[in-house]
């Protein structure tokens, strides 16, 4: 008579909250950290990840410690002053260092090139279709651009044109 009746286990609940997947021993949403839900058993916040258990927790803590150390090392390296040579070559932006060294011959050539560029810029019809751009800019070319550009706060800007 016993063989006729099989032992069937009744489900604990009709909801999926009691279903453990991917070797987890807790359900999704049983752990909360940094505004993210996760698994309590392995403290993972990736929904369908495989449970790594205590080894995964230790690895995550080691990775977090390494990341903190890298951030601290980077912050310490940014606090060190920039050498004078690198300050001298910083020609981008509005603040020009007082100790900027420029070659006068290259500066006059750059001023001529800037005048030619301004002429070409005015007449778009003469521009070729296959224009090649050079994105490598020297300190002299940048200074020539600064010298030739129109300064909108200059009271004499209308007098020159």
Automatic annotation (TrEMBL):
InterPro entries: Slu7_dom, Splicing_factor_SLU7. One of its GO terms (cellular component) is spliceosomal complex. One of its GO terms (biological process) is mRNA splicing, via spliceosome. Residues 7-30 form the Pre-mRNA-splicing factor SLU7 domain. One of its GO terms (molecular function) is pre-mRNA 3'-splice site binding. Residues 111-130 are annotated as: Disordered. The keyword Metal-binding does not apply. Residues 111-126 have a biased composition (Basic and acidic residues). It comes from the Eukaryota. It is found in: Nucleus. Keywords: mRNA processing, mRNA splicing, Nucleus, Spliceosome. Signal peptide: none annotated. Involved in pre-mRNA splicing. Associated with the spliceosome. Belongs to the SLU7 family. This is Pre-mRNA-splicing factor SLU7. It comes from Quercus lobata.
């Amino acid at each position: 008579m016993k063989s006729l009746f099989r032992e069937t286990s009744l489900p604990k609940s009709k909801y999926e909250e009691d279903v453990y997947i991917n070797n987890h021993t807790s359900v999704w949403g049983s752990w909360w950290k940094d505004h993210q839900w996760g698994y309590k058993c392995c403290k993972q916040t990736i929904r369908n990840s495989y449970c790594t258990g205590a080894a995964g927790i230790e690895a995550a803590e080691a990775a977090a410690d390494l990341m903190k150390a890298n951030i601290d090392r980077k912050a310490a390296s940014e606090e060190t002053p920039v050498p004078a040579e690198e300050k001298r070559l910083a020609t981008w932006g509005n603040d020009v260092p007082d100790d900027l060294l420029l070659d006068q011959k290259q500066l006059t050539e750059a001023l001529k090139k800037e005048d030619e560029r301004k002429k070409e810029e005015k007449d778009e019809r003469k521009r070729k279709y296959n224009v090649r751009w050079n994105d490598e800019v020297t300190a002299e070319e940048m200074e020539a651009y600064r010298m030739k550009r129109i300064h909108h706060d200059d009271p004499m800007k209308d007098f020159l044109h």
